[in-house]
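Review box. Two proteins, two foldings.
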Amino acid sequence: MNSSPESEPLPRVGVSSCLLGQQVRYDGGHKHNGYVTQTLGRYFELVPFCPEMAIGLGVPRPPIRLVAGPGDAVRALRVDDPAFEVTGPLAEYARRVADDNPDLSGYILKKGSPSCGMERVKVYTEAGMPARGGVGIYAQTLMAALPLLPVEEEGRLMDPVLRENFVERVFVYQRWQRLVAGGLTSARLVDFHTEHKFSILAHDEPGYREMGRLVAQAGQGDLDALAQRYVRLLMGALRQRATRKRHANVLMHIMGYLKPHLDGADKEELLALIDRYRLGQVPLIVPITLLRHFLRRFPDPYISRQHYLQPHPAELMLRNSL
């Protein structure tokens, strides 16, 4: 099988400091998240950031909130003193973090925060009425500066599909960063795409076909420009949720490589498990485990290169809930 994530250096993943138990919140407390620290922390190098502390707001401190002004402009203002604005400093710090940390492979943000919230952050009217539809100033600027970076909130990580999607994207993006750092060539780009074909297909079939056409042009023009187009398509495709139907399609593709080696009973068993998975009766790990069993008996050099069969450490058990 392809090299597993365990054999690679840990991806560096930014994280809101309060989620690590650091007492940096406005009230002097924290929002320690055990899943982030005790589970993901075993497979990610967690890099803490607290933008409010970084721009000089102490602990404890008066809280800030997002306020909508004229022309839909959203500002970060202190609750007890609307004349005290930190919009600019928060955005500037985000740009500095992006510039100083090009090796980040992912980021986990604190939900609901006026600085770090990724979505549905409360935005107040000047009259004081709240509506959930905003994005934290720091988070918004960071995501704009690093549009390829896998980003998620700790609350959304409780959703099994979103959790697996985020972790998969982190490892794919880390591999891309290592590819570029090691020296991009047409051959290495083709190899990278080949190793991720089934992973991409599980998320976005039209994107998979478009990336294939793009990679076929490698060596015919500006490789750097082509690679930038490719990675934008790649990370955009992987953001789409992989459905049971799409996974079942990939499983059937892999089975096609095994058919010449399987007897009737093996084929029937594998087909039945894929169908049960498609119907939601068993988790993804069940047909995957049987496929891996058959591939140990009947190795295939093409399938052995696919990261799809183990896109992240097995100990995370992410596919047990899909």
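Next protein.
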Amino acid sequence: MEKGYKNIGIVLLLLIPITSMGFLKTYLGAFPNFEEDPGKAVHFHFVVSALWIVLFIVQAGGIRINKFRFHRLLGKIS
């Protein structure tokens, strides 16, 4: 693995607080007792965004621990 990308999974962990700040006011701040239902589109957007970030972190972790087949499988599934 190239030296510059060795710790990319750790850097990608920064996406969690950044994304949380983006969803805090409109979604996470009211979760789970919403005064108004934000709608299915907002719920879908949050779930897909969270899964996308998890996918990035897990894929990078697979490379770091030399699980190349797992990394490729996740890439093909996604």
